[in-house]
Design goal:
The longest helix is centred in the middle third of the chain and has 54 residues. Strands 7-8-9-10-11 form a five-stranded antiparallel beta sheet, with helices on one face. The chain is of the alpha+beta class. Strand 5 and strand 6 form a beta hairpin. The protein has two domains: about 110 residues; about 150 residues, no CATH class. It contains two helices and 15 strands. The protein is elongated and about 135 Å long.
Length: about 350
């Protein structure tokens, strides 16, 4: 005998469960609808109150004082009705010129879903002063008169002019300070450079133009000096050079070109030049012989260099220091000691 087996119940929702779920969902939708509707109503009500407040603010701006006969007025605007009424508030004191004060009530009415709504504001305003011939003084609206505007513009123009002049003065002063600092820096660098190159003067000789005997390369006058020496160390600038310092076109010019041997005076038109200072009127060069305290205006010795060289510069806006340079190779070639000598010595 085959045993009987019950068929398993299929999973699903019964009719009662579906009805309960639909009922709950219906109540949920109703609650949500009411919440949304309440929010919309609150927004509409707030908007109405805001518009009513704007109407009252406009009414308050209509007058700064109450006319002599009082202020009673009514009207409507875009679905809102308004009314203004004033009543005396206290008594005036004519002894001290105090006007009569009025209690002014502002009312705005409107309907919201059939319900009457109202917004009221109470204020206090003085009475308008009577004028000869009747009527009242019109309240003066806030603002500037033409005279006040012209005075303000004039003061503003003066302030702008003063500010512009101040900024221009500060700018000019800063420019002058920068120029002065630049000139001082140029003087300092030029003085240090000339002190170094003059102190490194060489005993190397050259052939003069009008003589057959060799002569030292340093030749100087009161306004120009030429010598043979070394330049400060830099790439590609080794060996001896012809060097000259002179004023050319109101500029202090330092010229240099390689010393190639026993040549005569160099051709300075092909020499390299460097501008040391501008607006130079003249230079003054003096030479002091070894063992002497006197200064000579020129130098053209055949066998020795000066012990010292004094260099003065007259330039616009420049305080040139009293530059005195001790020439290291200043002794005669036949009396040279073991001191430092820059460059080759006599060529024999």
């Amino acid at each position: 005998m085959i045993p009987f087996k019950c068929l398993s119940r299929q999973s699903g929702l019964t009719l009662i469960e579906v009805l309960v779920a639909l009922t709950i969902m219906t109540f949920s939708f109703v609650a949500i609808y009411r919440a949304v509707g309440s929010g919309v109503k609150a927004v509409v009500a707030a908007s109405n109150y805001e518009q009513a407040a704007l109407i009252i603010e406009s009414l308050r701006s209509m007058r700064d004082a109450v006319p002599e006969g009082g202020w009673v007025e009514a009207g409507d605007a875009t679905g809102f009705a308004w009314r203004v009424a004033s009543t005396p508030y206290g008594e005036s004191d004519t002894k001290i010129g105090m006007p009569t004060m009025h209690r002014v009530e502002y009312h705005v009415y409107w309907k919201d879903r059939g319900v009457e709504r109202e917004l009221s504001v109470v204020s206090v305003l003085p009475s308008a002063k009577p004028v000869a011939g009747g009527g009242s003084v019109r309240p003066r609206h806030a603002g500037f008169t033409l005279v006040e505007m012209l005075i303000a513009l004039a003061l503003l123009a003066l302030l702008v002019v003063a500010l512009t002049i101040s900024i221009r003065t500060i700018s000019q002063a800063q420019t002058k300070v920068d120029e002065r600092l630049s000139k001082n820096e140029a003087v300092r660098l030029s003085a240090a450079f000339l002190r170094q190159t003059l102190s490194w003067a060489s005993l190397k000789k050259r052939m003069p133009l009008d003589k057959d005997a060799p002569q030292l390369g340093m030749v100087g006058t009161a306004e120009e000096i030429t010598w043979i020496g070394l330049l400060p160390a830099r790439y590609g600038a080794g060996g001896l050079y012809w060097l000259r310092l002179a004023v050319i076109n109101s500029k202090l010019i330092f010229s240099f070109m390689p010393f190639l041997g026993m040549e005569r005076a160099p051709d300075w038109s092909i020499a390299e030049t460097r501008e040391l200072l501008q607006e130079v009127s003249r230079i003054s060069v003096a030479f002091q012989e070894d063992g002497s305290s006197a200064w000579a205006d020129s130098w053209a010795s055949a066998d020795k260099l000066p012990q010292r060289v004094r260099l003065g510069v007259d330039a616009k806006g420049v305080n040139w220091p009293g530059l005195i340079v001790a020439v290291r190779s200043g002794r005669p070639a036949t009396e040279r000691s073991g001191g430092p000598v820059h460059g080759p010595v006599n060529e024999r």
